[in-house]
From TrEMBL:
<dbReference type="GO" id="GO:0097367">
    <property type="term" value="F:carbohydrate derivative binding"/>
</dbReference>
<dbReference type="GO" id="GO:0006487">
    <property type="term" value="P:protein N-linked glycosylation"/>
</dbReference>
<dbReference type="GO" id="GO:0005975">
    <property type="term" value="P:carbohydrate metabolic process"/>
</dbReference>
<comment type="function">
    <text>Catalyzes the first step in hexosamine metabolism, converting fructose-6P into glucosamine-6P using glutamine as a nitrogen source.</text>
</comment>
<protein>
    <recommendedName>
        <fullName>Glutamine--fructose-6-phosphate aminotransferase [isomerizing]</fullName>
        <ecNumber>2.6.1.16</ecNumber>
    </recommendedName>
</protein>
<feature type="active site" description="For Fru-6P isomerization activity">
    <location>
        <position position="354"/>
    </location>
</feature>
<keyword id="KW-0808">Transferase</keyword>
<dbReference type="GO" id="GO:0004360">
    <property type="term" value="F:glutamine-fructose-6-phosphate transaminase (isomerizing) activity"/>
</dbReference>
<feature type="domain" description="SIS">
    <location>
        <begin position="212"/>
        <end position="349"/>
    </location>
</feature>
<dbReference type="GO" id="GO:0006047">
    <property type="term" value="P:UDP-N-acetylglucosamine metabolic process"/>
</dbReference>
<keyword id="KW-0315">Glutamine amidotransferase</keyword>
<feature type="domain" description="SIS">
    <location>
        <begin position="40"/>
        <end position="179"/>
    </location>
</feature>
<comment type="subunit">
    <text>Homodimer.</text>
</comment>
<dbReference type="GO" id="GO:0005829">
    <property type="term" value="C:cytosol"/>
</dbReference>
<keyword id="KW-0677">Repeat</keyword>
<dbReference type="GO" id="GO:0006002">
    <property type="term" value="P:fructose 6-phosphate metabolic process"/>
</dbReference>
<keyword id="KW-0032">Aminotransferase</keyword>
Length: 359
């Protein structure tokens, strides 16, 4: 039931702070310990590679996961688009561990990979929102997203829940490997900060609607740009805008624009810079200036510690590893309000189904 909401998507965006709190309380303890299956943690700890497999938004959550796993566990981690990996015949190491990310747990492309993984005897974990789904039944281990049913075709709370569960898991494996950086990462506290930070952004939704009307409703194309983890969020932000508002959008590595793609910038093209990382903030700002001087209408989504006077949307401070939990929220809302103000069916965009059970 949507209750007072015009569309499920807005309800699901609004639910995200609670999902963060729920995941912190289900999977972590006040003592700093977690209650994940020790046998599973051991299996990941002993792996020489982690492979994360997903499609669409789940793939984008995997890109964020890679950064956390490598930082907190020091295990080399690769992320794969399921439909590509299934037929790639990839070169594998001796002891890989596979993590499947899937909201529905039914995506055929991901299942095709899991069938191969099982045939070769490799260990796997499915992180999913649906208990007893195909992918959770067929993997060795399962973790639930506890996000509640996601009805809108555009995935929102599953993305942030996947990132939160990856953070909890990466910390746990890192601690098992006695990595100091993992021991110092207080994931329970950070998820609490994520919850309050999300709420603060959601409380500004009327402002975000104004921006959607001003910048996107009449646009034919748009760009989200960033570097590193911000680049991965730019992909998700662009996907949201494309799928529900039909604005052709690209998520792009901000430094790569000048190698060709900047030719697409014309008078009025909206370009959103995502800026949450100390190391790359200045660089992305200069890349934004490059688009501005070609006529772009620029906006910024900036982490508060890095913000400047004329930034458009400032998101609260949080550990640099999990900034996507906050930087994605304005992008979800911009996509939502663009679709809404174009009079489209936000929850049921054309050509799409909620779960994709064909390859
Ligand atoms: C985008 C979206 C899709 C799904 C993809 C994978 O908003 O919802 O890109 O993320 O089809 O679905 P799951 O996560 O169910 O495997």
């Amino acid at each position: 039931d949507k209750g007072p909401y015009p569309y499920y998507m807005l309800k699901e965006v609004d639910e995200q702070p609670n999902v963060m709190r729920k995941l912190a309380s289900i999977y972590t303890e006040e003592t700093g310990k977690d209650n994940l299956d020790p046998e599973m943690i051991d299996a990941i700890k002993n792996a020489d590679r982690i492979h994360i497999v997903g499609a669409g938004t789940s793939y984008h959550a995997g890109l964020v996961g890679k950064k956390m796993f490598e930082k907190l566990t020091h295990i080399p981690t690769e992320v794969h688009v399921a439909s590509e990996f299934a037929y790639d015949d990839p070169l594998l190491t001796k002891n890989p561990f596979f993590i499947f990310l899937s909201q529905s747990g039914e995506t055929a492309d991901s299942r095709e990979v899991l069938v191969n993984v099982n045939a070769r005897g490799f260990k796997s974990l499915t992180i999913t929102n649906v208990a007893n789904s195909t992918l959770s039944r067929e993997a060795n281990y399962t973790l639930l997203l506890h996000a509640g049913p996601e009805i809108s075709v555009a995935s929102t709370k599953a993305y942030t829940a996947q990132i939160a569960v990856e953070a909890i898991l990466a910390k746990s494996v890192g601690v098992a490997k006695e990595q100091v950086i993992a021991e110092d990462f207080d994931v329970r506290q950070q998820l609490g900060l994520a919850a309050t930070g999300m709420q603060a952004i959601i409380d500004e939704k009327d402002e975000i609607e104004k921006l959607a009307k001003e910048y996107f409703v009449n646009a034919t194309r748009a760009f989200y740009i960033g570097r590193g983890i911000d680049q991965t969020v730019s992909l998700e932000a662009a996907l949201k805008l494309k799928e529900i508002s039909y604005v052709q959008a690209e998520g792009f590595a901000s430094g790569e624009l000048k190698h060709g793609t900047i030719a697409l910038i014309e008078e009025g093209t909206p370009v959103v810079g995502i800026i949450t990382q100390v190391k790359t903030a200045g660089l992305t700002r200069s890349n934004l200036q490059e688009t501005l001087s070609r006529g772009a209408n620029i906006l910024t989504i900036v982490r508060s510690g890095l913000s400047k006077e004329d930034d458009t949307i400032v998101v609260p401070d949080i550990d640099e590893m999990i900034t996507p939990l906050l930087s994605v929220i304005p992008a979800q809302l911009l996509a939502y309000y663009t679709s809404l103000n174009k009079g489209l069916d936000v929850d049921r965009p054309r050509n799409l189904a909620k779960s994709v059970t064909v390859e």
